[in-house]
Amino acid sequence: MRLRSVFALAAAFVVCVVTTPLAAAQDLLIPMDDQQENHLKAYGAVYAALQDGRTVDWLLNHRGGAFLAEASDAVRQELQVRGVTFTPVSAGRASKIIAEVEADGSNKSVVPLEKAPEIAVYAPDGAVPWDDAVRLALEYAEVPHDVIYDEEVLNGDLASYDWLHLHHEDFTGQFGKFIRYRNEPWYIQKQNRAEAAAEEFGFRKVSQLKLAVAERLKQYVAQGGFLFSMCSGTETFDIALAAHQTDIVPEEYDGDPVDPNALDQLDFSNTLAFRDFTPNLNAREYEHSTIDVGPPPPEMRDPSLDYFTLFEFSAKWDPVPSMLTQNHVATVKGFVGQATAFNEDVLKEDVVVLGEAPDRPQVRYIHGTHGQGTFTFYSGHDPEDYQHFVGDPPTDLSLHPKSPGYRLILNNILFPAAKKKKQKT
């Protein structure tokens, strides 16, 4: 598929009318509003079309962020097999849709998606007693991806990927502050592997290994990579970068005490999204820092009252935030995690807030740039499991095919496929 001009589409329509009694479908409209039966599978179908060398138009702010794809047998079959709702449209109808979306004064825009990004997830091989929402989304949508970890990052494999997700991770070297699980087999396995990797790469402590990994990831973004993270991966990434000149890790985790001047030696110029935060230096407290506002006490948690609102951006003036917030609803159910919500007071000035709780300073979804690349941080652990506990079974996304919270994840995997357009001036 390709982005045609209105005039070219109109001309094609005239030819079809003259030569055939009934204009054949030229495109397939994939609605992403309430009419779509499987929003999540739709992303996988679009990704498959891009893999086949086709171009798909993303109609920002039109019918929930609809897609317009070529009416080929291959694309049609992908949509049918995946159970994705679509409508064949003639060239004339397609021209009207394009004209409506691109009309002056509309809050919409057409963005061509041209190349399927190479995707990787930074995650450990060994079993851990929690799943990861991004991997669940990719697997359900049938989007191919690689799993890499510290070894691949430090060996220079990041250059092979356009988009990278940071799994539920602790880049500070405190093993998620899960000290209460220190005798569990999975914790011991994770600790042993991390310590072995640190030794292999010449680091004395796991915190030094993780800092080196974080620095490589930051360099990956600066060189044009697209970084996405959720839950603790968001918060601990910047904590590790801020503490690159000091030791904030309690003795219980690394065998030596915290630097007595640690808080004075934090370097916020080295972080991506957050500044002026305070790391939690207590080994037995679950919270990592003041970046995370944190969930309310258990007795006050009511999922029906916890939600956040997506900001509406002009697709013509702000195409990137628009792509990242495409959805069929304006409000999304809240969900907790090790990093449940970001403290608005510690956001850097150039960070764009994409979604926040309407009645309190809790930011849930942010985006920013660094060098030639971008980062997007999404708080919480699982959009369809309000309080996901250690050991809980993975979410079955076949029960949530229209999940607005999971849609935000999948917006991010298509974002790198977009052809850059000159912004309106």
What would the keywords be for this entry?
five-stranded antiparallel beta sheet, globular, ten-stranded mixed beta sheet, Alpha-Beta Plaits, disordered N terminus, alpha+beta
What does this structure look like?
The protein has two domains: 108 residues, Alpha-Beta Plaits, CATH 3.30.70.790; 236 residues, Rossmann fold (3-Layer(aba) Sandwich). Helix content is 30%, strand content 16%. It is α+β, with helices and mostly antiparallel strands. The protein has twelve helices and 15 strands.
Beta-strand level of the residues, as a percent range?
A: 15-25%
Mean of the pLDDT scores?
Answer: 90
Helix content range: 25-40%
Number of strands: 15
| Order of helical and strand elements | HEHEEHEHEEHEHEHHEHHEHEEEEEH
| Structural class determined from secondary elements | alpha+beta
Quaternary organisation of the protein chains: single chain
3D shape:
globular
- Give me the Rg, rounded: 23 Å
| Highest CATH level, the class of the largest domain | Alpha Beta
CATH fold descriptor of the largest domain: Rossmann fold
User: Can you name the CATH architecture of the largest domain?
Assistant: 3-Layer(aba) Sandwich
Give start-end ranges of low-pLDDT stretches: 1-23
The CA-CA distance between the termini, in Å, is 28 Å
Mind describing the biggest β-sheet? 10 strands, mixed
Q: In the residues, how many domains can be counted? A: 2
* SS element count, helices: 12
Question: TL;DR of this structure?
Answer:
The protein has 425 residues and is an alpha+beta fold. Helices cover 30% and strands 16% of the residues.
